[in-house]
Amino acid sequence: MNNDILLIFTFALVLLVFVSFLIVVFRFLEYLFGLAFGKPFYLYFYPFPKKISSDSHHFLDTKFPFYIGLSNKKKVYFEHRIASFLNKYEFVGREDLVITDEIKVYVAATFIMLSFGMRKYLCDVFDKIIIYPSVYFSKITKQYHKGEFNPNTKAVVFSWEDFRMGFDVSSDNLNLGIHEFAHVLHYQGLKESSNALVLFSRMYTVINEEMSDAVYREKLIQSNYFRIYAFTNQFEFLAVILECYFETPLEFKNRFPDLYGKVSLMLNMNH
User: 150 forms bridges with which residues in the sheet?
Assistant: First the structure.
């Protein structure tokens, strides 16, 4: 009996070591693959994809253009990621705002849209979404805000009125949801070592290095395509170019094809 137990224990130990070795090898090979091709081995593998409610599905299918443009297979992946997002993050309403399912799905879909080209599509740098009815007063900054990402409290905060307006007016390159979630991805990329976000951070580094060239920077400013707020700092530049990427992709591609291509590589999507 003791010999049988020892044999089982030895087999389990060898199996564990072997599996661990395979994981290390896979991660190393994927890292090399990412360096060579700028993307992970695979993005989607959900044998039992999570479902969303019929109302949520109807909302996406009628009011969220990014989802509408996906293939049927990718819509299943998108819905799975929406469900995972809703399970992971807490929603908090302020000033008597009632958090409806539509609000949750709208916010979740915005984040999933930005991270849809990444295998690790959820972030650990926030754990809650706080939503006010409209512009709110921040006790921290002593100013009124439409939205913010606060890594210290692990919160993303929105004015619901301004969040909705970002999608209601879809060609002005102003989208509060995209803007604040871009800050989340940027911050996560600075802290994260996973292959997906390494690729994100690496390509953003290339973009940022180009921005350090005074002539190139001035060309972008003089174009009046990117609002001047983009040039406040690196974080705001990333947020603004992602707003442009999703709101006016054809104009972006026509006017700045090289930068557009780099953003596509950064997000690992062909928008």
Answer: 155
Query: What are the φ/ψ torsions at residue 51 (nearest 5 degrees)?
Result: -110, 160
| DSSP-based helix, strand, coil % in the chain, nearest 5 | 65, 10, 30
> pTM value?
0.86
User: What does the pLDDT look like over 174-204, one tens digit per residue?
Assistant: 999 999 999 999 888 877 655 556 678 788 8
> Mind listing the pLDDT tens digit for each residue in 61-90?
999 999 999 999 999 999 999 999 999 999
Sign of the torsion angle spanned by Cα atoms 28, 47, 70, 80:
negative
How confident is the model over 141-183, as pLDDT tens digits? 888 999 999 999 999 999 999 999 999 998 899 999 999 999 9
Cβ within 8 Å of residue 185, ≥6 positions away? 114, 115, 123, 197, 200
66: amino acid identity, one letter = F
SS3 label, residue 142: coil
Return d(Cα 11, Cα 75) in angstroms, integer. Answer: 42
| Residue that has been written with the tokens 């989802």 in this structure | 67
**What is the C-alpha separation between 85 and 125, in angstroms, rounded?**
14
Alpha-carbon span 214 to 48, nearest angstrom: 51
CB 214 within 8 A of CB 180: no
The distance from CA 245 to its chain's CA centroid, rounded to whole angstroms, is 13
